[in-house]
Amino acid sequence: MDRNSVIGFILLGVLLVGYIVFNQKQQATALKEKARQDSIANLNKPKTFTDTSGQVASQPDSAQLAGEYGAFAGGATGTEQDITLENELVKIVFTNKGGQPQTVQLKSFKTSGGDSLMLVKGSFNRLSLQIPVNNHILNTADLYFTASPVKKEADGGQTLRYRLPVNGQADAYLEFVYTLKPGKYVVDYTIHAVGLENVLPASQNTLALQWNWEQHRQELDMENERLNNQVHYNLVEDDKHDYFTLQRTSHEKLDSKVEWLSVKQQFFNTTFIARKEPLAGADINTKVPESGNIVGQTFTVMEIPYTHTHNFTYPLEIYYGPNHYKTLKSFGIGLENIIPLGSGIFAFVKYVNKWIIIPVFNFLSGFIGNYGIIIILLTVFIRLIIAPFTYQSYVSQAKMKVLKPELDELRAKYGDDQQAFGMEQMKLFKSAGVNPLGGCLPALLQLPILVAMYSFFPSSIELRQESFLWAKDLSTYDSILNLPFTIPFYGNHVSLFTLLMTATSLVLAFYNRGMTDQSNPVMKYMPYIFPVMLLGIFNRTAAALTFYYFLSNVISILLQWVLQTFVINHDKIHARIQENKKKPVSRSKWQERLEEMQKRQQSMQQPRTSSKKK
Question: Which of 157, 232, 365, 597 is deepest in the core (most CB within 10 A)?
Answer without folding.
Answer: 232
